[in-house]
């Protein structure tokens, strides 16, 4: 079972992506942005390797205007070696990659221009995956589209357009149930007609179930049968509902107890699980720490080293509880550990907490900082914006200048570490 996340990282330096406007999409700008984005992707892959994350969805925005005539660059040739190197790195480390075109890539539209644009977008996604690694197990996930007042006819159009796609696109394409129109039963019907593997989305199914209300594990088993050997291991999407938002909205983080109950129900099935969640890699590491066979308190201590100043900023009470929890080196209190982190993360940053955390971080520099930096810190320390210190960016610059690895990997700097 591989567990992964989609598109972006939280709190990891040098992993932010750039974009550009249509007006500024010159050859020079596009070349520069693509080069920057490939560097960011390479850093993400390195992070994933270091954290044993072997499932990752690449953002569709990696190449600006990738399927548009605005971008006239033959980027797949210009960056051939760099793309291939990323592919080698993912392949050698067992990382499975995927892509997921956006809501405007609709293959079953009655409007031929919409379909034409959708095919162009699928060509772009295929070209990018092929340039990185042509492995058929690296997939492009696609929703069926709209109903357009006649769902049966819309399904028929999808099948026809799918069958006319280039074989290289079809080898990467998989289809997914959605939360509004096409339930898993209907997607399975389309799979039988096209041969496309099915990604079962757990949350979508809860919101838009099949007519017979079949058990989710039965649908996971049925979906598995659509995956051929060359397609790689079955892949599913897992997310949890944000209780404060409309149905289908992903939660901020993964509740570990709920995820634990879910994977227990798999009962021997071993799908790759793409987490769709707001805190991205943070939940991936959380779930991997739950499923590791070799459980060690060192895993939680390593996590704590990244969270500690962020938690201190939000809740001194939870900070002390976690420190106490990790004193017993023979235990593995993973549920208690992450429950305390999740609880603290929901809290607003207080003025006192902000000062306390910042002073702890400043402690790394007070002996090496020059007089100008010390005065700068004291000046910024007195400035507040809605209770949050204004000098976190300065502290980040100090961490980078003095190369403090403990701080550079800290989630305390999540809001500033990828500012361009």
Proportion of helical residues: 40-55%
Say what the CATH topology of the largest domain is.
TIM Barrel
**CATH homologous superfamily of the largest domain?**
Divalent-metal-dependent TIM barrel enzymes
Mean pLDDT: 94
Mind summarizing the main beta sheet?
8 strands, parallel, barrel
Unreliable spans: none
Shape field: globular
Terminal-residue CA separation: 36 Å
Secondary-structure content class = alpha/beta
Describe the structure.
This protein has 420 residues and is α/β, with parallel strands linked by helices. It has three domains: 3-291, TIM Barrel (Alpha-Beta Barrel); 297-345, no CATH class; 351-413, no CATH class. It is 49% helix and 9% strand. It has helices at residues 27-50, 75-78, 80-92, 112-132, 151-163, 167-172, 184-194, 202-207, 216-224, 256-264, 281-291, 297-314, 316-325, 334-345, 351-362, 371-381, 392-401, 405-408; strands at 3-6, 55-57, 96-99, 139-143, 173-176, 198-201, 235-238, 272-275, 384-385, 388-389. It has an eight-stranded parallel barrel with strand order 1-2-3-4-5-6-7-8, surrounded by four helices. Strands 9-10 form a two-stranded antiparallel ribbon. Strand 3 (96-99), helix 4 and strand 4 form a beta-alpha-beta unit. The longest helix is centred in the N-terminal third of the chain and has 24 residues, at 27-50. It starts with a strand and ends in a 12-residue tail after the last helix. 37% of the residues are buried.
């Amino acid at each position: 079972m591989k567990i992964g996340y989609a598109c972006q990282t939280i709190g990891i330096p040098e992993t932010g992506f750039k974009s550009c406007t249509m007006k500024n999409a010159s050859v020079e700008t596009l070349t520069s942005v693509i080069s920057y984005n490939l560097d960011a992707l390479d850093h993400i892959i390195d992070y994933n390797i270091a954290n044993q994350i072997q499932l990752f969805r690449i953002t569709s925005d990696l190449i600006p205007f990738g399927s548009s005539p605005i971008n006239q660059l033959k980027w797949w040739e210009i960056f051939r070696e760099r793309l291939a190197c990323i592919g080698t790195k993912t392949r050698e480390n067992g990382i499975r990659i995927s892509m997921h075109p956006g809501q405007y890539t609709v293959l079953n539209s009655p409007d031929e221009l919409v379909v034409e644009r959708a095919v162009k977008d699928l060509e772009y996604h295929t070209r990018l995956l092929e340039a990185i690694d042509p492995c058929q197990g690296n997939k492009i996930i696609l929703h069926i589209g709209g109903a357009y007042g006649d769902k049966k006819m819309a399904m028929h159009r999808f099948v026809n357009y799918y069958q006319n796609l280039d074989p290289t696109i079809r080898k990467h394409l998989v289809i997914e149930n959605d939360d509004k129109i096409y339930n898993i039963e209907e997607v399975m019907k389309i799979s039988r007609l096209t041969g496309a593997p099915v990604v079962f989305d757990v949350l979508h199914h809860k919101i838009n179930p099949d007519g017979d209300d079949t058990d989710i594990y039965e649908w996971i088993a049925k979906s598995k049968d659509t995956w051929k050997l060359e397609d790689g291991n079955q892949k599913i999407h897992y997310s949890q509902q944000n209780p404060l938002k409309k149905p289908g909205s992903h939660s901020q983080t993964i509740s570990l107890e709920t995820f634990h109950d879910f994977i227990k129900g798999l009962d021997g099935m071993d799908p790759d699980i793409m987490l769709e969640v707001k805190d991205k890699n943070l939940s991936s590491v959380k779930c991997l720490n739950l499923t590791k066979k070799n459980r060690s308190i060192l895993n939680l201590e390593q996590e704590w080293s990244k969270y500690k100043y962020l938690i201190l900023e939000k809740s001194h009470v939870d900070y002390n509880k976690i420190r106490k929890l990790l004193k017993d080196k023979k235990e593995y209190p993973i549920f208690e550990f992450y429950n305390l982190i999740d609880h603290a993360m929901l809290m607003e940053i207080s003025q006192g907490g902000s000062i306390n955390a910042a002073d702890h971080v400043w402690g790394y520099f007070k002996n090496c900082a020059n007089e100008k930096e010390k005065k700068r810190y004291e000046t910024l320390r007195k400035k507040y914006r809605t209770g949050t210190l204004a000098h976190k960016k300065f502290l980040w610059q100090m961490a980078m200048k003095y190369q403090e690895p403990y701080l550079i990997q800290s989630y305390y700097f999540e809001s500033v570490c990828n500012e361009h």
